[in-house]
Structure prediction request, 222 residues.
Amino acid sequence: MEKIAVIVAGGKGSRMKSEVPKQFMLLRKKPVLYYSIKAFIDAFEDIKIILVLPEEHIGKGQEIIDGFFDNTKFRICPGGRTRFHSVQMGLSLIEDEESVIFVHDGARCLVTSKLIEKCYIAAVEAGTAIPALPCNDSIRILTEDGNTVLDRTRLRFIQTPQAFHSKIILPAYKIDYKESFADEASVVEAFGIKINLIEGECNNFKITTLSDFNLAEILLPE
Prediction:
């Protein structure tokens, strides 16, 4: 089955307090985005990749492709107003061939090929595959009267890549946008499809702050 990765890296990185968006910051002399891309190519040699980037930084994305990869595997498009619209832009480049489509945060640069392969297998079997981790901390939710504890055994932290059969995600992204859409799984769920959770990876965190960046530099395999 065809394999297509839509890697969304349209953020401005304002919380990093850097003039350079976080996906282009150098991590061990290579851009953060390089590692996210490489994990997919290492997982599947025949994968096709769509990069969704800030319009003003599409040139930087092309430089990464030209410098490190076979550019015949890639297409680039600008991001949209929200994550939903950015993913929608990427999906619009996909023809209607039967495939498994991954959507991944470009700033999750520690994703492994093993997790990508697990997502693919699960998506082929169940139509969807969403990596998730159990919650190990005590969690409380704010209420009108103060706050109350939640049962953490029923909570999961959601990661990417989120993988879907093309016959599910492509029509799902034709529905109207809602502010409640937090990720691709929430869109597909609103379309009426049951979400299949699989085990994620502890190190597959999204770089958001400088502390995250420093930790990724330590954890990045040699």
